[in-house]
Write a structure and sequence with these properties.
about 300 residues, about 0% strand, two-stranded antiparallel sheet, mainly alpha, about 70% helix, binds geranylgeranyl diphosphate
Length: about 300
Amino acid sequence: MKPKVNIENYIKKFSVDFDRKLIKLIPKKNYFSNRLYNAVLYVVKVGGKRLRPLLLTEISKILGVNKSNSFRTAAAVELIHCYSLVHDDLPAMDNDDLRRGYPTCHKKFDDATAILVGDALQTLAFQVLSEKTTHHDSEVRCKLINELSKSSGVNGMVGGQMLDLVAEDKKLNLNQIKLLQKLKTGELFSFSCIAGSVLAKKKSHEVFKKYATYLGLAFQIKDDLLDVEGDEKHTGKKTRKDSVRGKETFISLLGKEKAKQKSTELISNAKKILQPFGKKATKLIEITEYIISRNK
Ligand code: GRG
């Protein structure tokens, strides 16, 4: 019998392999400025959990997608995620000094460079998707570009970030918080979960969209819990930020215990959706559980 690989080790190994290939999408020869190249590489090399690429890759495996196609699509979503963190950390937004355990991009370089790094990462994401090696069928490539732009634009992450910026010190209710988080965080998770169906040209889109709804919400509740209970050493970012800023979160509205209960319920619903995939979904089920058991 094969020894059981601990899920954290599995995720770590995935991220090391993923990062090795991701860096190859950033060749030095494309850069006229060493400063921009070094800053882009710094952000990408600092790493992260790579959860969105992991989900995209695991779902793609279940659906029988070619590895190179799923890698390039996973790279695109991670590039968007990295850009959003760089911009979010800027003084004009969250003004953070620490990200993934290292100085934020604008601290290491400067604000203007960090803005350009975000722009460069974002445009690279769409460049990668548009290239033929991502999928031989141009309709599939176009659909991926369309879905990722919707998830990251005004109907997704950017829209959610704006709601978040104007929400400080406002008393949002649970439905308003749900909408804000769905846009800001949930939509990129949604893209990560439906991309496999687009690549495989399979009709499993809606099933994985539903899975992503449960998963994204559970992820955000856990993120809020880590802000309250976690420590900087593990999370690699400043904690207790929400309460200091008077931000309403799932924890402030539901209380810790109810929020934990809710996240367990959501994960259980997400796992139920995977049941019809049988053994093929074993790893994805473990990853689904990790979303709320993680300490970073
Ligand atoms: C600037 C357009 C724009 C959007 C920013 C992503 C985001 C929107 C803000 C980051 C602030 C934040 C804490 C968001 C909530 C959840 C979140 C995205 C956490 C970070 O994601 P992880 O835990 O991070 O997957 P790693 O570092 O592991 O990749």
